[in-house]
User: Fold Exocyst subunit Exo70 family protein from Rhynchospora pubera.
Amino acid sequence: MPSTTTTLATLLTNSSSTRVADDQNRPSRLPPITDSISTIHAFISKWDPHSSLSSRFLRATTHLHSYLLHLAASPARSSHSELMRTNSLLQSAMYCLDQELKNHLLSISDAHTLSDTISTVRSIVETMLSTGYGEECLTTYQSIRRSAVTSQLNQLGFDLYINRTRKLRKLKWEDLDHRIHSWIDASQKAVRSVFFHEQQLSEKIFGASPESVRDSVFASIISDIAGHFFAFPEYVCKRVKRSPERLFRLLDMYEILSDLMPDIESVFASEAASPIRTKIMSALTKLTVSIRTILLEFERAIQKDTKKPQTSTGGRVLPLTRYVMNFLLSLSDYEAPLRVILADMPQESDASSIQSYDSDDRYGSPVSVRISWLLLVLQRKLESKAEKYRDVALSYLFLVNNLHYMAKKVENSILKESLGDEWVAVHMTKVRRYMDGHVRSGWAHVSAALPVKEEEPVERVREFEMVFQKVLKEREGWVVVDPTLRNEVRLLVESMLVPAYRAWYQVYRGKMEVRCAPEDIQNRVLGLYEPSSAGSASSSGSGSAKLLRRLGCYLPQRGDISIRLQKEGAKALPGEFSLRYPISYDPHQRHELSLRYQIDNLTSSKGVVI
Assistant:
């Protein structure tokens, strides 16, 4: 079967030959063939790559080709030797034209090149086509323009050769991510500049040919290059792992292709360029499948998370909660592409029953429904984790912190545009309900231990003090992360304990020894739930431990480190840790002290420099 270039060259030659025949049928005064032969001989004898091309030479070449056809059509009136000489001269002229075509094409950057240069190339192309050298002309044109287009893409930062499938298989994610970034950066200029200008150039140079032929010339140059360029997203989809972090690069590629579709449909509108459009649609389909798969895997990862919350964390916000909310926040930045991707995505049975909390249609969009569903999946996981706490009050506190974090993240971000005010209000109501549950389950028994007038005051007040101190010790590391919410919890606990205790205190404070005044109870309650008060399981609550934690230091065990007292200005010996002590410290005391003892002294001294 003939090659694509040969077939296209035949179409070009036939269209040019038809024009030449029409021109020959018109009355005209052609110079004698001897004049044309002389012109061609003169040009060839003096030709070099830097010589200027004259229109006279082009007309003489066309005339010589017509004379050759005349000799071939009248063998009886022409000799074989004359036919061979004419053909040889025409071949020599075509060689010069082919070289001229190469030189002028190499000076063309795009369709904005000087019109004189483009006009000269067009004249050469039309001459070669009309004289039966269409295949040679097209081969030269395709070769040089393909190299030019490939070079322009390389200058944009995307190398077609190194980004083929075989080259991508061995790449680490960091390197692949860099390649994806390069492709995204290059895409807009590739479509709107490189490919567009190449189409315009084909229109100008082959403007005398039929539109279908011009389209075919453009497609023959660009098809392989554009095919490899737009196949890159498919390569990435095959290579990338289904982890949530990779989703956003796929969305970036999908978004840029979607944004460029009007330009793509314009540049590659012809039937000859339809394989390129097919490749782009295939890339969008593969990206859609990969994005949906990662979203489903993300959902399953939340459901399958089996890490048990540690009591020592004091009910803090889980890393899982932070991760999911930050993921959804990033996801909401891709509202436009996700509307298309998620439009007909199959949903879980529970997800399909999710209704918008707001009457606005945008809150019922596929994106809003998907985000609402993922938030519900997270909430259910948090509730299942809360059930693993032995202390009911701590489980409620855990839900307060995590659900409040979710609600505030939505309220203070673009997520609110997807979910609406009503979603935030509903979940803040849940937070208040969990907060009330924490206070009731955690402090009702303390309130029940408050002394009453009818009972023995001494035993009762001692029982209350014991219960209260026990609760304070147990909850030393419990935290309410949000400051406003923290104050609300404190006030709820205070209102449960302090007024009743104050009423009892005012009656009995002069009749017996009372260790705690109402203000003491109040101050202890108001000191609860602070994040800084939550230490690790191995850390003590002493002043020395707090100081070391503030300094970011390791808390030593007894006797494992010693420190040498240095006079002010003295340098520490190698391996020693130097502290400057208050001037009041007695330098004649023993110099070798335990680190804990020194830190204890420091925490109780003023003017210490560390």
Notes: Confidence is low (pLDDT under 50) at residues 18-28, 356-361, 533-610. The radius of gyration is 42 Å. The longest strand covers residues 562-564.
